[in-house]
Amino acid sequence: MTSSSTTLSLVDTDPAELAVDAIVIGLHSQTTDAAGPARAADFAGTLLLATGAESIAAAFDGRLTETLALLGATGGPGEVIKLATLGTVTAPLVVAVGLGPEPSGAAPAPETLRRAAAAAVRALAGAERVALTLPLPDDEDGPAALRATAEGALLGAYRFAGYKTRPQPTRRPPVAAITVHVPDAGDERAQAEISRAGVVARAVTRTRDWVNTAPNELRPPSFADSVATAAREAGLGVEVLDEQALAAGGYGGILAVGLGSEAPPRLVKLSYDPAIAAADGSVKRLALVGKGITFDTGGVSIKPAQGMWEMKSDMAGAAAVAATMLAIAELKPAVAVSAYLPMAENMPSATAYRPGDVVTMYNGKRVEVLNTDAEGRMVLGDAMARACEDGCDYLVETSTLTGGQVVALGKRVAGVMGSTDLCQRVQQAGDAAGEPTWPMPLPDDVRKGMDSEVADISQVNASMDRAGHMLQGGVFLREFVADEVPWAHIDIAGPSYHAGEPTGYWTKGGTGVPVRTLLELVDDIAANA
Ligand code: BES
Ligand code: MN
Ligand code: ZN
């Protein structure tokens, strides 16, 4: 496994003179008053070169937009048009990447830059060195634009190594070295953004690698080993509970789900303690919890065969949290962060848990199992209760929890449930990261529907009514959070995995959502408590 190791740097010299394999410029589409252009050359009026492309345009004697129009450019988002420069500038190739209409009086949104940088870098696979000169504002919005551009470029260069036994002659290797053109390459803030982007991109690509790994290669013991090894190398605290320790500790939910598999369950705890404690000792403690089902067959309540392979991504939450911790170890924020990763493989077998079982969870609550496919909340309930027992000021949990999330919000927008203030902060962090979330309620009637005949709560609606499916997950998890702890549950069933063709900075497979949201949230907590 493992992906590319693309490098990233800044440059402030004239893009027309850069000795690279390709220069990427931005191209806007604009509406004209004309009734509508009739021939290719007339389309030039609908194109607008973005800021940053000036010296390249000058080298083309003002004929660059016209040439791009002849090549069919529209400036639409995601469009990539390549143009051989034939000696006009030092680089042999100019690549115009579409940015859509120019926002009136403003620079493009960070997410526009993030996607465009990625689209260009993806289209340039095979090139070794690529420079980007995109419209980065030279004001207070500059750092966010640079951050987005750098992240997008690195994530667009991601490729999962895969398992092919022969090299694929038609598959070109990802871009090796990316340079971003800025007004002042020596600027400390710009340098800091570039190094942060490198750390963040490594966390996202590590998440993608774990998610994309075949499920026979990543079962709870090997996933736990892989996480623990990386965490130890990063200098994090590591504690791994194996099946004996889980039994001794009373982790009924994790054990129940793990019963069906020959590969026993694990609970991995990672911890980061900031050396730079705030002077008044008021460092906040954040607990992160991620669902680590290494494969979800549904268990005895087995899933249909169609699409079941995608359930190798059912550990995306744990992978994202683990990778976030590795990034935190490098970024060293002034927040104490602990991560709890319950890992199990949900299999049907003679030893599997079954509908009708009553399970005693880590916090002592008894749960009536009605559908073994609702396994995520069983392992998460234990991990969240343990996090609260250890003590924390905030608890954020993320999981590929329900198909209901995908039905309600689709494949891009995660659902967020929990304490109102913390949910808002998660949403803001996600917006800054280009990982949108939407708040969802935890209604009383949904909780009422989960009253069990025999136990404290049933695992899903007592008559298996799928109404408010995503909300049932959130309502269940709330039972395992200590009363005073602000918490948020982020359901990433849709956004954590991209089954379609590559688009923007999303490659096929794991996306790395919500690593960047969690890192933004950590910065928010460090800055504002
Ligand atoms: N891992 C699935 C949820 C899921 C569905 C993730 C689609 C990604 C894409 C989860 O364990 C599950 O099976 N949920 C059930 C819950 C039901 C049995 C209450 C579901 O969504 O149908
Ligand atoms: Mn399931
Ligand atoms: Zn699952």
UniProtKB/TrEMBL annotation:
Gene3D superfamilies according to UniProt: Leucine Aminopeptidase, subunit E, domain 1, Zn peptidases
Predominant location category: cytoplasm
EC number(s) on file: 3.4.11.1, 3.4.11.10
Domain Cytosol aminopeptidase: 371-378
Intracellular or extracellular location(s): Cytoplasm
Molecular function terms, GO-annotated: aminopeptidase activity
UniProt cofactor note: Binds 2 manganese ions per subunit.
Cofactor(s) needed by this chain: Mn(2+)
Keyword Manganese recorded: yes
Family annotation (Pfam families): Peptidase_M17, Peptidase_M17_N
Active site: K303, R377
Keyword Hydrolase tagged: yes
Source organism, top-level taxon: Bacteria
Record: residues binding Mn(2+) 2: K291, D296, D314, E375
Coiled-coil spans in chain: none
Binding-site positions, Mn(2+) 1: D296, D373, E375
Reactions the enzyme catalyzes: Release of an N-terminal amino acid, Xaa-|-Yaa-, in which Xaa is preferably Leu, but may be other amino acids including Pro although not Arg or Lys, and Yaa may be Pro. Amino acid amides and methyl esters are also readily hydrolyzed, but rates on arylamides are exceedingly low; Release of an N-terminal amino acid, preferentially leucine, but not glutamic or aspartic acids
Keyword entries, A-Z: Aminopeptidase, Cytoplasm, Hydrolase, Manganese, Metal-binding, Protease
Classification via NCBIfam families: PRK00913.1-2
Family the UniProt entry places it in: Belongs to the peptidase M17 family.
Role this protein plays: Presumably involved in the processing and regular turnover of intracellular proteins. Catalyzes the removal of unsubstituted N-terminal amino acids from various peptides.
Name under which the protein is recorded: Probable cytosol aminopeptidase
Organism: Plantactinospora endophytica
